[in-house]
UniProtKB/TrEMBL annotation:
Pfam families: GntR, UTRA
Source lineage: Bacteria, Bacillati, Bacillota, Bacilli, Bacillales
Keyword terms of this UniProt record: DNA-binding, Transcription, Transcription regulation
Keyword Iron: no
Top-rank lineage group of the source organism: Bacteria
Domain HTH gntR-type positions: 5-73
Name of protein: GntR family transcriptional regulator
Entry-linked InterPro entries: Bact_HTH_transcr_reg, Chorismate_lyase_/UTRA_dom_sf, Tscrpt_reg_HTH_GntR, UTRA, WH-like_DNA-bd_sf, WH_DNA-bd_sf
PANTHER family, per database record: MANNOSYL-D-GLYCERATE TRANSPORT/METABOLISM SYSTEM REPRESSOR MNGR-RELATED, MANNOSYL-D-GLYCERATE TRANSPORT_METABOLISM SYSTEM REPRESSOR MNGR-RELATED
SUPFAM superfamilies on file: Chorismate lyase-like (SSF64288), Winged helix' DNA-binding domain (SSF46785)
């Protein structure tokens, strides 16, 4: 059993290396299961295990009756300091960005929102539900909360372009800092319907608190990213402190 696990992991890595090197380019059909069995001198079960993992992780896509193909590259987003909006980050990767508004509503603040904002119980808070897409494929489902007293009357136009830009230009609020907490979760049926994925797909879950230059908390969001369509880059800068780590 251990030997089989090691073998399919090796095969997975070999195929992934060919994808990342460009030998198996985007949209290219990879060798058949039979051909891979001959190449690696192993069983079809071992090959399928490797291919299934690569498919689940978003590197391959299977087309019934046609074969297995290299999937489109994942949307890369930067989590370190950046002034680039989602649409800018997607455009530079050659993809078409879109933000689709699901709903805007005003809800009474509950105890959970009181933990995020300095609001009183039942104070009005705007709830903005959106899906972000790249090349018409959903990559992110997001629910944002902004107190009515902070920026009353967030519109559809604001929500479908950039909330942060709207806060700056329409309400004079500059987002100076965000704090993000990242976890891994599995898509349920509701999330799967928004992200157009099967329940059980691994997703990144990020909670974000945005603050203005005075330290006031102005936005709280919960975002879910398809794990097979998204990856993140984190860049760290370190001051010169000799040999200290």
């Amino acid at each position: 059993m251990e030997k089989k696990r090691s073998l399919h992991a090796f095969i997975k890595e070999e195929i992934l290396n060919k994808i990342k090197s460009g030998e198996y380019g985007t949209g290219k059909k990879i060798p058949t299961e039979h051909e891979l069995c001959q190449t690696f001198n192993t069983s079809r079960t071992t090959i399928r295990t490797a291919l299934n993992q690569l498919t689940l992780e978003g590197y391959l896509t299977r087309q019934q009756g046609s074969g297995t193909f290299v999937a489109d590259k994942k949307v890369r987003q930067t989590l370190s300091n950046t002034v680039h909006r989602y649409s800018d980050q997607v455009k530079v990767q050659g993809k078409k960005p879109e933000i689709a508004l699901i709903s805007i509503s005003v809800v009474p603040a509950d105890e959970a929102l009181q933990q995020a904002f300095p609001v009183a119980l039942n104070d009005p808070v705007q709830r903005i539900e959106r899906v972000r897409k790249a090349n018409d494929e959903p990559t992110q489902y997001e629910i944002s909360f902004i107190p009515w007293s902070t920026a009353p009357g967030i519109s559809q136009q604001h929500a479908e372009t950039s909330l942060y830009r709207a806060l700056n230009e329409e309400y004079g609020i500059h987002i100076a800092k965000t704090t993000e907490h990242i976890e891994i979760t599995l898509a349920d049926e509701g999330l799967g319907s928004h992200l157009q994925c099967e329940p059980g797909l691994p997703c990144f879950y990020i909670e974000t608190i945005a603050e203005d230059g005075y330290g006031n908390k102005v936005e709280y969001s919960r975002s879910y990213f398809r794990g097979d369509k998204t990856n993140f880059m984190i860049e760290r800068n370190y001051p010169n402190q000799g040999d200290d780590e």
